[in-house]
Amino acid sequence: MAASDWRLEGEWLKNCSCAFGCPCDFNAPPTQGYCRGLIGMRIAKGHFEGTKLDGLCFAITVDFPGPLHEGNGTIQPIIDERATPEQRQALFEIFSGKHSAEGTLFQIVSLIVTKIHDPVFVPFEFSFDKDGRVAKLVARGVLETSVEPIKNPVTGAPHRIQVVMPEGFEHRAAEIASANIHSTGAIAFDTTGTHSSLATVVQTPEGVAA
Fold first, then answer.
1. Which residue in 78, 139, 144, 177 is a FRET match for 119, CA 20 to 30 A apart?
2. Domain boundaries, given as residue ranges, for the chain
3. What integer is the mean pLDDT of 129-156?
4. Strand, helix or coil at 146?
């Protein structure tokens, strides 16, 4: 068990270049053979040891040449410019995976990522309606992604589907939606009408608590 005391509670999105229903969640290969995407979070309540993280946002863009479990991934952290130096370091400590038990999200990421681009610190806009399957994350000058419901191809009506993962290391349950991504940072790419997962999560050193 990891020794450090940390916790992140808040709104979570995972948008990527794959078709709806992220193949990674089903231990299947990426739709196009590679994965480019992002995770993003607005921390409602959080801390690392004595450093509070309430109200901060972050995103991490990712690029994997094949299935994530095969590794060789590249990432870039994008951090809310409002974070103090202590808060920035606290987030980097959490992201490092050094303070997480084996088999938890950030520990797994630490094993499959081989290159980390320099972080950037920018203003964030973040809106999130999980039940409505609508969200938007803007990291000014680096990343913009929007989420809307999947549409029925015949009627155009919103289509609702959930993924439930009782032993998931990212979340326990997520609403599945449609994402557009425009990334201009170190990992630059664009998608239209690709996968999105929206969830509320509690991440701890021992993994997902809720």
1. 177
2. 6-208
3. 97
4. strand
